[in-house]
Design goal:
mainly alpha, 2 domains
Length: 163
């Protein structure tokens, strides 16, 4: 039997396993070896290797985490700023119905006031936001809204596009 470095390395891996541990491996003198066919270049071919006597476990993988896509401005407006939403900025009679009647006019108005300015938008600033969810005073009496904070911060992180 040929004992080339490649054959010895394969033999050692079969005995020790991939972890390199020899804790439960028999001493080298007690290892039974089977002849391994060697190609002309003295490298063993995959078909000539004996089957591993040890079970091979699949590699552990982290569970997949479902990620929701970042909402568009139109979705944010419809969810948080339109009449009847948590913000209800366009509510008639009290708030900003003339300048926040739809997603496009709301974006334009907020941008003109300096609240929307790409990835550094004051709308999500803990010190400069007008929104109560970030420390501001609008909408009056609004409850904390973790979903709005998460969605607005993600949207701003993408550059606050007018989509």
């Amino acid at each position: 039997m040929l004992r080339t470095p490649a054959v010895l390395a394969i033999h050692l891996l079969l005995v020790m396993g991939c972890s390199g541990s020899t804790r439960n491996a028999p001493p080298p003198t007690m290892i039974r070896s089977q002849p391994i066919a060697v190609a002309a270049s003295t490298m063993a071919t995959p078909a000539a290797l004996p089957a591993s006597p040890l079970p091979v476990a699949a590699p552990a993988m982290a569970p997949a985490v479902a990620r929701t896509p970042t909402p568009t401005w139109t979705e944010i407006y419809a969810t948080y700023f339109a009449p009847g939403t948590a913000g209800s900025c366009a509510r008639a009679g009290k708030c900003h119905p003339d300048v926040m009647a739809d997603a496009t006019s709301a974006y334009t108005w907020l941008a003109q006031r300096g609240y929307v300015a790409g990835a550094h938008s004051a709308l999500v600033s803990k010190t400069n936001s007008c929104l109560r969810w970030f420390g501001g005073n609008m909408p009056p009496g609004a409850a904390p809204n973790e979903d709005a904070v998460r969605d607005l911060e993600a949207w701003v992180a993408l550059g606050a596009p007018a989509n």
